[in-house]
Amino acid sequence: MTAKKSDPKDVNPRETGKVHRHEEIVRPILVKNIVQKSPLKDMYDCKERKHRSRDIDLPMRTINIHLTELVPGKSSRMHKHHNEALVFILEGKGYSIVQGERYDWEQGDALYMPTMNWHSHVNEGPDRVIYLGITNKRLLNFLGLDRWIEVGKNVTQEEYEEELKTIEPSPYSWVSITPENGVKNGKGFKYL
Length: 192
Description:
By secondary structure, this protein is mainly beta. It has a domain at 42-151: Jelly Rolls (Sandwich). 11% of the residues lie in helices and 33% in strands. Strand 1 (44-46) and strand 2 (51-55) form a beta hairpin.
């Protein structure tokens, strides 16, 4: 006995568990590179970030993972971005400045960087710091929504300090997304 095929417009993927209405079964995504060997040994000097870094080079579609090394006395630049970030400290000791507040951390600690919060990570110990950053950057890049703002590059030190005093969102934080106009950035658009 052959099962009766349903009309595609009558299929509800949430009820049936099917990914696409036209598929009868859910198929796996096939990838070849499941393992990246020793990315810590493969770190490089990143000119943009001014410290050693390495993105994990695996076929993830929605999340991005990177490794960062800060030598004693070094820090990441003060910046903010639309993507959320989780930072896990693999080695070392230091602190992060988030929206002007200091947060101390050490090996084994995890930090959360909320979207569009100014932050910088600082190595204050005698040994290197290695941290793992996990973000939803790839998903936001795919959607055209990710944005990175950096003090000294996109805004001045004075603008950064003024923003912290007023607790007002930066004009670079504002975004509007509509079917009619697409993605628009800049002051005057509703912040989501």
